[in-house]
Every structure is written in C-alpha cells, then in structure tokens.
Design a protein that fits this description.
The chain is of the alpha/beta class. It is built from 8 helices and 11 strands. Helix 7 (132-142) links the parallel strand 4 (116-121) and strand 5 (143-154). The model has no long low-confidence stretch (mean pLDDT 96).
C-alpha cells in the first residue's frame, strides 16, 4: 500500500465536506475571522512583515489567518483539491498568499529553494508522516538563519487512552505503525467519504524533539497544554472554544507546542 496515494485520495475526499462544515466555518473566516489559537499567537509573536510557510496547510485557513496578522505567507499541501480551495478563498478575501501542491518531503524543491523566517505546522499534521527525521531536515532547509519552526500538535499521550472516556491506557505508546484505518466519515460530520482508508503513524514526544535537534535546530521551548479544540473524549467540557477535563479531574496533556530556531 502506497501511504501517500491512499492518504491523498482520502484528503481530497474530505475537502468538500470540510469546506461545507460548521467545524471550519469558512463563511465566518471570509467575514474576517482569524482561526489561529490564542496560545499560538502568543508563542509565535508578532509576524508583521515576516515570511511564513505553512506545511500541510489543508485549504489554508490557518495560513491566511497568519496573513491577516501581517505575515507574508505560503501554504503547501499534497491535496490538489485543498490547494484549489485555498487559492479561491484567498482570492475572494483579497489576501495575498502563495499556495503550492506538493508532498511535504518535496517542499524545498517545490518552493524553488525559498527560505522563510517561520516554518509553521499546525494541529493534526505529524500523524500523516512516516519519517520525522526527514521532515525535520526539510524544515531546517526551509529556514533562514535566525528563523524558527513553530509546531502545535495533538499530544501523543492522548492517543494511548481509551477512545471513549480518556481515562484508561489501552494503546501502545511506542507502536509507531503504520496504522491503516477505515472510517466512513471525517471528523467534521456524518457525510460518507468516497475514499475511506487512511494510513497514519504515531510519533512520541521524544521522537519529535530528537528529530528537530538532529536537524541542527535549537529547541527554545516545549509546552504541554491541558486543553484541545474538539471533544476528543466524551468527558471533556467545553469552555470558550476549547475542551478540558472537568474541574477536579486529573489533568493530562492534550496538545503540545514546540519552537526551535535555526
């Protein structure tokens, strides 16, 4: 099984469903909404006039949000359908942006050897990549001297817990995969996908940090957060757009963020 072809078909099928979903609220974005989370804005800092490339950008709402905050943005994704939508949204909103269709491992060549002040990778990206060492080397080649990687990602600890309550360890933290999944739906709703197979890879926190440092980047911080952005487990409680375990319950890390400089 070619994981890349399988996953590309799966994500191309997700695009029209995601575009129409309340989860992404594309109409709200077109009306001026910025979808970057507040902790990301705080940790990245002022992006005015800085060049930023967003790897695995889907249809670009995060990318274009960074543009609204002042960055000069480029988005890259392997899904032709997603990039087509990203370009359309950018044009409709009058936001200057470049969007390129390519696999993340081919980013250096696909972007013509350009380098950037910031390489940004958002929630839910790394699980689609089999080789983090190669990914981190790609990131390092995309950075200008003094630039930095900023990664916000779902915490791998949450992936070993039972899918219903999130209170019992049921999965192997060190089982990297590949894991082949058959899901009729995507995470935004009940519409049935045309291509339902996906291939994913689990990466522990140590693997992420080791790959980044081996690529010659200096880790500035690794922060763990006790909240996420969807109801990952049934017991999570929503408050102001984020989800946590209820007050009094033991807290666990649900998201982490990492910044590493060239």
């Amino acid at each position: 099984m070619d994981y890349l072809d399988v996953n590309r078909a799966n994500w191309n099928a997700r695009v029209p469903i995601h575009i129409a979903s309340d989860f992404y609220d594309v109409e709200g974005f077109k009306a001026g909404k910025i979808v970057i989370r507040s902790f990301e804005r705080d940790e990245v800092g002022d992006v005015s006039g800085r060049s930023l490339v967003h790897l695995q950008c889907h249809f670009g709402l995060d990318t274009l949000s960074w543009a609204r905050l002042g960055a000069e943005v480029t988005g890259l994704d392997f899904s032709e359908a997603a990039i087509e939508q990203a370009r359309g949204i950018a044009a409709e909103c009058g936001i200057p942006a470049r969007f390129v269709t390519a696999d993340v491992y081919d980013a250096v060549e696909a972007l013509g050897g350009a380098t950037y002040d910031i390489v940004y990778t958002g929630i839910g990206a790394l699980v689609w990549l089999p080789d983090l060492t190669r990914w981190a080397r790609t990131v390092a080649r995309l950075l200008k001297p003094g630039g930095f990687l900023y990664l916000a990602e779902l915490h791998p600890y949450a992936d070993i817990l039972d899918d219903e309550t999130g209170t019992t360890v049921t999965h192997d933290y060190f089982e990297k995969g590949p894991h082949v999944w058959e899901y009729p739906h995507t995470y935004t709703g009940s519409e049935v996908l045309e291509h339902q197979t996906s291939v994913q890879f689990q990466h522990g926190l140590g693997e992420v940090v080791s790959a980044v440092t081996a690529a010659g980047l200096r880790v500035e911080f690794l922060h763990e957060h006790d909240h996420t952005f969807f109801r990952r487990f049934a017991g999570l409680v929503a408050s102001e757009g984020i989800y946590r375990f209820p007050e009094g319950a033991p807290r666990i890390p649900l998201v982490y963020s990492l910044r590493a400089s060239a």
